[in-house]
Amino acid sequence: MKSLTKELWFETKQRREFINITDQVEALVAASGVQEGLCLVNAMHITASVFINDDESGLHRDFDIWLEKLAPHEPVSSYYHNRGEDNADAHMKRQIMGREVVVAITQGRLHLGPWEQIFYGEFDGQRRKRVLVKIIGE
Ligand code: ZN
What we know:
The chain is built from three helices and eight strands. By secondary structure, the protein is an alpha+beta fold.
């Protein structure tokens, strides 16, 4: 069995940001030499997500507005978690958008649907955070 393990680092300029990481993950699949297998991609932080959806800027604004309605950042004092912190909303946003994705590898490529792209979702950014990529197969 072949395998490849790699941590990708991110430091977003904004507090909340979505970054398309499909090309980075695809490059790791190519580097792994795996032709048939699985690729796990997970956020290593509890205030960030990895998810699959469309790379369409309107949709990303819609996600941001929707998440702000569900778990608004302000007022920070409205959350029990924010006694000494200010990121309770980010924990909740991460929970909704998910921790990880698993994508099939077929003939050496990510086997994504026609509009599927892999995103890093940051909800408490402006500091260095990691995503784990684990690829296994033959
Ligand atoms: Zn926290």
